[in-house]
């Protein structure tokens, strides 16, 4: 056969194959719908797999926060069949009203191709019923919800909430519908608690039923569970402190002086953290937002209170370091300290007294003498320089600045400076203009955390560890190094001896803190009655125990509580007793504290005015 014949035959074969293929393609694409149906009936959908959020334990290993399994119900509006579905039945399964379901579907249809959240917090039992219903276009997404076995520490622990648009734009990790920690431990340790999201790829048919994993799951990425945190909190002590502070406005902070670990952090009023979980979260949040006592405001780390007489400890220590005071120096007190035509009043006690007894009796006059000598020290050119030097000492105690704890939203308090007084008095001021700072009044402002840290400083005789709320992080050998480093004040340790002795005398010999005495425990304490222009004075107490081997340092602050010894002192004493002895021997004192009545006229008036304004707006 010639080459020409072979070439012609090959060409005919190619033509024939081409015609067969063209006919087949025409049949498949135009005439036969089989493959079209197969293509459209299998949909690959990627699903974000959310990790279990890490638990939070107390220092003894008891759960403060843990997670339970729940589900979000999602819908892709374009996949809902045109024939509809049983709205009443689905609403019943989701535990929402049919009207609520219809409202959600209306929103979903605004972006029909995008997944839309219909209802959250579906239980495992309800999910099984939902799956049996085979609701086309709807599917579930695995979630976890927080639960709180002890029902304590609302402000301390924080809560979890859906991210907002700003957070989605700010952090690449989050997408719409994700959750994030808000406030407290949940926020401070968000990146560790949240874990890492995974993703799964599954094949669905047109009815929304899963036909299998895409490529047998080889492309899936498993989520990584969040880290478990062991907090420094003593759950039993925290719960007891919240019970004692119920009905009161203020804060309690207790620290282990040898480590800086926070044992108790109570802001009162507080709230049950379970209120911030579930579908009623928004309603509960709104109610708390309208409460004028502001239960979601963490007073323990954010409030700015005058420290009152507890601040006299700092004045005495600065005076000793500056050399303008010796422990045996005597100063008189005849009902107070007179300067010009004014008098800084004081209560009755013997006179004259030395530094130790001035601490024990909380003498106002004594520390006015000391403060004046500090800021008018001849080694400074003028009073401005004297106050600036005093500022530096006070800052070294952690006042007027943030302590750099691991708690979000920590306040700095306020310490007045020469520049402040220059503005306030147009440059014309003297030591008498600032004398109220001698007893922790005037412009002074401190957080309860700073005051508890002062107790730890005195307990340690001159240094502290930065207060922190987390003791251990799963998978890590240690927490941040800064929490292991001693922070020294500008006062030498030798000068703390007479101050500690004065605090011990005030509790165990004679003085204003006698009610804090616990036999055999060598409690040291200092009362404070902070003047309040808006009503009854605030009650505060600062303490540590035992004297020579301190295990706990504590500060209690009760707004409008009156004298320091009236309510703040017994609260601190009861907490020290429980922590150090593992028991309570004064049940009658517990009842007295719980039943202590405080007239919060200021907050009640604010609430009435707010409720009235809301009523007027609703009528309009």
Q: What report would you give on this structure?
A:
- The structure is a single chain.
- This protein is an alpha+beta fold and 620 residues long.
- The chain folds into two domains: 45-82 and 92-98 and 108-231, Alpha-Beta Complex (Penicillin-binding protein 2a (Domain 2)); 235-602, Beta-lactamase (3-Layer(aba) Sandwich).
- 36% of the residues lie in helices and 19% in strands.
- Strands 2, 3, 4, 5, 10 and 16 form a six-stranded mixed sheet that branches.
- Strand 8 (198-204) and strand 9 (210-213) form a beta hairpin.
- Helix 14 (355-361) crosses helix 19.
- 39% of the residues are buried.
> CATH first level of the largest domain: which class?
Alpha Beta
Shape-level CATH architecture of the largest domain: 3-Layer(aba) Sandwich
**Class per helix and strand makeup:** alpha+beta
Mean pLDDT: 90
Radius of gyration: 34 Å
Strand content: 15-25%
**DSSP summary: helix tally:** 22
Can you give the helix content as a percent range? 25-40%
Distance between the termini: 104 Å
Net shape: elongated
């Amino acid at each position: 056969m010639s080459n020409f014949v072979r070439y012609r035959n090959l060409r005919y074969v190619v033509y024939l194959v081409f015609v067969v293929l063209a006919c087949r393609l025409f049949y498949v694409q135009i005439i036969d719908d089989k493959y079209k149906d197969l293509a459209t009936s299998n949909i690959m959908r990627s699903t974000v797999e959310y990790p279990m959020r890490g638990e939070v334990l107390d220092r003894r290993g008891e759960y403060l926060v843990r997670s339970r399994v729940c589900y979000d119900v999602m819908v892709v509006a374009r996949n809902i069949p045109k024939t509809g579905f049983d709205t009443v039945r689905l609403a019943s399964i989701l535990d929402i009203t049919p009207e609520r379901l219809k409202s959600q579907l209306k929103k979903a249809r605004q972006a029909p191709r995008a997944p839309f959240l219909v209802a959250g917090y579906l239980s495992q039992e309800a999910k099984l019923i939902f799956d049996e219903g085979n609701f086309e276009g709807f599917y579930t997404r695995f979630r976890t919800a927080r639960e709180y076995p002890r029902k304590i520490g609302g402000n301390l622990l924080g809560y979890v909430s859906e991210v907002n648009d700003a957070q989605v734009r700010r952090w690449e990790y989050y997408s719409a519908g994700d959750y994030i920690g808000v406030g407290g431990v949940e926020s401070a340790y968000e990146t560790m608690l949240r874990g890492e999201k995974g993703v799964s790829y599954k094949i669905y048919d047109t009815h929304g039923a899963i036909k299998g994993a895409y490529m047998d799951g080889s492309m899936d990425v498993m989520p990584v569970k969040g880290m478990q945190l062991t907090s420094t909190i003593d759950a039993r002590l925290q719960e007891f402190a919240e019970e004692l502070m119920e009905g009161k406005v203020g804060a309690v902070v207790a620290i282990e002086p040898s480590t800086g670990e926070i044992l108790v952090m109570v802001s009162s009023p507080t709230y049950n953290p379970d209120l911030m979980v579930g579908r009623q979260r928004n309603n509960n949040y709104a109610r708390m937002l309208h409460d004028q006592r502001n239960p979601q405001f963490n007073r323990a780390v954010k409030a700015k209170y005058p420290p009152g007489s507890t601040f006299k400890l700092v004045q005495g220590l600065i005076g000793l370091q500056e050399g303008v005071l010796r422990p045996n120096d005597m100063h008189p007190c005849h009902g107070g300290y007179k300067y010009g035509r004014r008098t800084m009043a004081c209560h009755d006690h013997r006179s004259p007294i030395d530094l130790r007894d001035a601490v024990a009796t909380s003498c106002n006059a004594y520390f006015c003498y000391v403060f004046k000598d500090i800021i008018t020290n001849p080694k400074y050119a003028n009073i401005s320089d004297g106050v600036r030097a005093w500022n530096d000492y006070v800052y070294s105690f952690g006042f007027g600045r943030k302590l750099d704890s691991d708690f979000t939203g920590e306040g700095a308090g306020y310490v007045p400076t020469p520049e402040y007084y220059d503005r306030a008095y147009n440059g014309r001021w003297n030591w008498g203009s600032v004398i109220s700072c001698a007893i922790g009044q005037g412009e002074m402002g401190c957080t309860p955390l700073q005051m508890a840290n002062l107790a730890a400083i005195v307990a340690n005789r001159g240094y502290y560890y930065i207060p922190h709320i987390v003791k251990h992080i799963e998978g890590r050998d240690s927490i941040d190094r800064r929490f292991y480093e001693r922070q020294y004040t500008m006062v030498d340790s030798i000068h703390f001896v007479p101050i500690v002795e004065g605090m011990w005398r005030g509790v165990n010999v004679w003085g204003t803190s006698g009610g804090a005495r616990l036999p055999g425990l060598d409690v040291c304490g200092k009362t404070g009655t902070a003047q309040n222009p808006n009503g009854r004075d605030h009650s505060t107490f600062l303490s540590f125990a035992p004297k020579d081997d301190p295990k706990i340092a504590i500060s209690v602050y009760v707004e409008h509580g009156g004298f320091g010894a009236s309510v703040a002192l017994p609260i601190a004493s009861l907490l020290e007793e429980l922590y150090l002895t593992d028991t309570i021997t004064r049940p009658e004192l517990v009842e007295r504290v719980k039943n202590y009545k405080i007239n919060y006229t200021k907050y009640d008036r604010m609430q009435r005015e707010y409720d009235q304004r809301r009523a007027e707006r609703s009528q309009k």
